[in-house]
Structure formats: structure tokens, C-alpha cells
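Feature request disguised as a bug: please show the residue count (477) next to V-type proton ATPase subunit H in the output. Example input:
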Amino acid sequence: MSLEPPTYLSSLENNIRARPIPWEGAVRAGNITDDHLKKIKAVDKVRKEQRKQTVEGDLKGYTTLLAGGPDGKSVLETASRRTDIVQYILVLATDLINDAPSLASAIVAHPDPYKPFLPLLRHSTSTEDPIPLLTSTFLTALVSASLKSSTKSTARDEEALTQLFAYLSTLTKNNDSGLQDIGVQGFSALLQTQRSREIFWSQRKETVDPLVEILRAAAGAKETGSTTLGGTGSIRSLEPGIGGGVGLQLLYHVLLVLWQLSFAGELVGDDLESDHEFIALYTQLLRLSPKEKTTRLLLATLNNLLSANRTTLLPVAVFVRLPALLSNLSGRHLTDPDLLEDLQSLSEMLDEYTKTQTTFDQYAAEVQSGHLRWSPPHRNPTFWRENARRILDDDRGALPKKLAEILAKSWDNDKQVLAIGCNDVGNLVKEVPERRAQLEKLGLKTRVMELMADSDESVRWESLRAVGEWLRYTFDN
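Example output, currently without the count:
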């Protein structure tokens, strides 16, 4: 999957290519060797075809030039004190493996292909230093080639992926939308295999969370002064965009990465929902989607996640009114065949689910998602009369255990979750008073009593009502 290189990166590389380097002086100073210089001059500032022919005629020599070997150190190691040469070589190296893919294969076959490059990702923490950025560009292309060359990832690939994801995430967390886009495109180039998606997910606080924040801004769910929400005029910044000022290009690339991640749907789906209310976010983005290409990615991602997590995520999709939105989309004049296929698949999946869904299923899925909302069951006396005992018994008491986990958190940014949890505990005590001990063993009575002193009025009220149910049966006894 090939994307257009980000404008800022292309401009930076062109500026470095145009810089004069006093190569002979560098040889005299011992920064590079005569052999290095001979190989550099043979491919520098020549036509692409000539460069390709030269490199393919000496794959071993150019592999040693960049990665080092028995015949000599990498030029990056000998020239480490000359930042101008290091920058120039990094740009040249990327050009070489792009123009002559067989060189990438030859470097991948090297015993330690990433050794001269990985330390350069930590050359500086300043975004003004181009060396880590240029290194990540080369390494992304090289690791991507390595992943394509084998069905099984190697330990060295996994180590390189870990370090690359960590560096690229510093770009996606930057306030500059141009740097964000470079980081996002790097992610996309690397998420080609199941293993790379697993590593990406294992670093999700660094990798996934900033991408979701960009999407929240696009959905209008976040206020900030960053360039993500309406550029500062930086040369790196992208075009003005949709909701929150997020550029359409950046939005598309973020959606592309999360679509790639969704092929590990069984691994990521439930946590995406519990951590980010992902289905509601994507439903809102679907309402706002400005282009068929963004709509296609949104639908494809939802299709992957819901297919892999039907029990837990389909009830959430119904709750956020995704079926109604899909019905609305079906009435539009859409032409993309992949989009239409995913739209039909999602509609059929949700239609089939809603025909068999019970209110208990909806409630259980909401609790298991780890985030409570004032959905209809919570305030429905009939629901509690008919289902309280089942809630306590189902799956060996899994639901009250999950309720205890939810109430144990502070929810400083969403106090209604605590209010709803207290409401549910109170209803369980009211309808099945003889099972109070089960709830007390989970620490629910103690926690509900603590919440009587909470700063939020609705939490205090619901906790007071729940404690009242306990006291009522205590006095009755």
C-alpha cells in the first residue's frame, strides 16, 4: 500500500540533496574512506536507471557501505561526527533502496542490518533535528521490505518495530499536523502482518491513543489549540479540514491505520471499546464523513470489529443507533463497490442481531464493556424485577464482579458512570435482598457508602438510595 510522501518530508529531503558536501575534505579528515567516496559518487546525482544499474552490479559493496560488514564499517559509523554527511547518507540510502529494491533485500539478508540505524532514532528529541526523522523514513522502508520477504517475523524485525513505533508515536503526539501525518504514514507502512499489528497494539498507549485523540478532534469531541484543530501556519501543516479543523489527508491516513489494525479485531475490539467508546466515535465520524474514501474505511473497520466481537460490540452498536445511520447511508447515491459491500454486510449483521436481542443481552454487554450509560434498562423497574436474579447468577456472577470493577474507578471525567453503578447496585439489593452478602463480598456496599461523600450531586443521590435499600432490609430483619 503506497501513499504519497508527506510534503514537509519531501521538501526536507530535496533541500539535503541540494547541499554541497566537501567529500574530499571528509576523506582527508577520516570521516569517510576512499572506498565510501567512490561508491557514493557512482550513485549521487545520476539518473534513476543509471543508479539502479550501478547498485545492482555491486549489491555486496552497497550493503557494506550502509550496514557495514567484514570489509569495513558503515559510512554512518565512520561519519558519525559529521551531521551533514549523516543526513545526506540517510536521504541517499532511502533513494537507493527505493530505486533498487534488490538492495533492500540484500541489506535484509545482512546478519545485523539495523545496527547502524536504530541508535540514530535517539540522536535527539528535538523535532528540529532531521536525523531521527530521516532514519525513521529509511528504516520504515527497510523493515517493511523485510516483513514482505518472509511469512515469519524475526526477533530483529520485532525489536526494530518496537523502536520505530515508539519514535513514530512522538510524531503523532506532536501538535504539528505535518509531523503527525509523517508518523501516521510510517505506521501504515509497517502494519502489514499480524505480528506487527500485535506489537503495535502492545504499545497502544503510545501508538493508538494519539490516533484516537485526532479522531475525537475530527468528531468535534475535543477542544485544543494544536494544529490538529486548525493549523498554525507551520510549513509542515496540512490543508484545513473537517470537524475540529483536522485535515482530510490526516483523517484518511489515521482511519487507514486503524482499519489495518482492525484485522486483529478479536485482539483489539473489546479494549478499543472500553478504553475509547470506539463504536460511538466511529458512528459519529460516519455521520460527518466528507468523502466516500473516508466512509469506506469507517465502514470496513466497523465491519471487521463487529464481526470479530459480536457478543460484546453488537449491543453497543445498537445502543448508539448505528442501524438507523446505516439505513440512512443506504439511501444515498454511493458508488464504491467495497463501501457498498461493507454497508450491506454491517446492515445484515445488525438486523440479524436485533431480531434476537433481549434487554438482558443489552444490559450485560454494556456492563462488560466497562462503561455505563443511562440506557433504558437502568431505570426500568420491570427490567430489574425480571432480571436481577439472572444478573447475579449469569456466568458465575460475572456481571456484579464487573460492576465492582467499574465502581472501583474514580471516573473523574465521567461521574455519571458512578451514579449509574450505584443505581444498579440499589436495584439488585431491592429485588434480591437475600443475596446482599454476595454483593458485600465484592466490596460493593463499602464502595457505595464511600460514594455518599462524592463531590458530584447525582453520585451522592444514587449512592444514598442504594445504601437506603441495604438499611431497609437490615431494619426489616
